[in-house]
Fold this sequence. Notes:
6-stranded mixed β-sheet, alpha/beta
Amino acid sequence: MKYISTRGNAPELGFENVLLEGLAKDGGLYIPEIWPSVDYKNLPKGPYFEQAAFIIHPFVDDFVSKEELLSLTERAYSQFPLDDAAPLKEIQKDNYLLELYHGPTLAFKDFAMLLLAEFFNFSLKKRNKKITILGATSGDTGSAAIEAFKDSEHANVFILFPEGRVSDIQRKQMTTVSSQSVYPIEVNGNFDDCQNLVKNLFQDLEFKNQYSLAAINSINWARVAAQIVYYFTSFQKIDAEKVSFSVPTGNFGDIFAGWVAKKMGLPIDRLIVATNSNDILHRAISTGDYFQEKVQATISPSMDIQISSNFERLLFESLGRNSKETASLIEKLKNEKGFTINQSSLEFIRNDFDSGNANEDQIRNTIRLIYNDTGIIIDPHTAVGFFASKDKLNKSFPMINLGTADPAKFPNAVKDSISIEPNIPNKLDKILNKDEKFDKLEDDPDALKSYIMSKVK
Length: 457
Ligand SMILES: *Cc1c(COP(=O)(O)O)cnc(C)c1O
């Protein structure tokens, strides 16, 4: 499989180089040259790691053999429940909760990050190389990355998180891991500032090469590929002609994986982009205007984003894979804070996607309603998805709502909604009283460069 850049000005690469490079040299995102199709009826019945290898293999064919891929997926998913890594519960008639939070850090990002770490370690061992992982997090990416790479002999890990914008538990998951190669950094800024710092360092090619910078953000194609799997496995569990998915969305990585599943042949009816008050994607899909506003802090902090990086991939597809037009829209985003999506692109997008948004009260109400109706406690991100899908429940096709985090990660939001604290799983209980270790930096690329230089010898 060859990969091309959405901006058309970077070399075509195979999977392994796409994995290691993350962002393309022209600032674009890599995307497969063609969408492979698979027959979902041939999907193995389980275990999950075999299903994962089946779905992911077409994307990595030149990198690992089928047997090697199986051993990587087996290791990646060994920390999930063995009987079912991604349980699906019908909580109301034809309305499902897909529980993606049974991994080590209790959010769906573990699915992609643990496999990404296996891929990296496999490649770096072969090349006898060491890299510097640099990533930004709105909460869950950071802990998933730190957990996945903490024992790697091939990587130092630097994770930027916005001051005061991640929950206490999310921060502790990053700052209580004892590892010589892990550096959580609190940045005086918001998530988009953190993400821009990362982009800035990656664009300094000399620095990038000298420190072998590698990206683990959701723009990394390997992460998107890993997320395709549970769309297939959840569909397999339901006896339906088609299903729809509602996906709590920030950076557009998870839901884009759903779109890829559809391209690969999975019978998906609608994909619902569910946003919180940071609703740039909802506005874009409902009006065609993709304009940035100020980031608002919400009770679903992992979605507090105004620049949705992976949306560039869909934009590229909606423009008939015209990289010049894609690049010029992204240029407008930089210079004019946004752009208007043309009519034919918008129709392309609306052909597969719906959107919705939930404000803070609507999120809390949804947690309460679902709890009162079913006795099930959902987290505030998952609630955004349930809120957005409730008007789109369709009698002919079931709805699968992606449960993206364990409610125990956001106890305050849950308590404010239903006056009950969610149970704290053992995995979390252990870290709550541990000492935290992290450094603080200003929103300044030079300060970040010096910091990394001082740590990587
Ligand atoms: C990251 C995250 C999201 C958003 O996923 P994207 O792929 O960035 O759209 C939603 N919910 C939770 C809990 C997350 O951690």
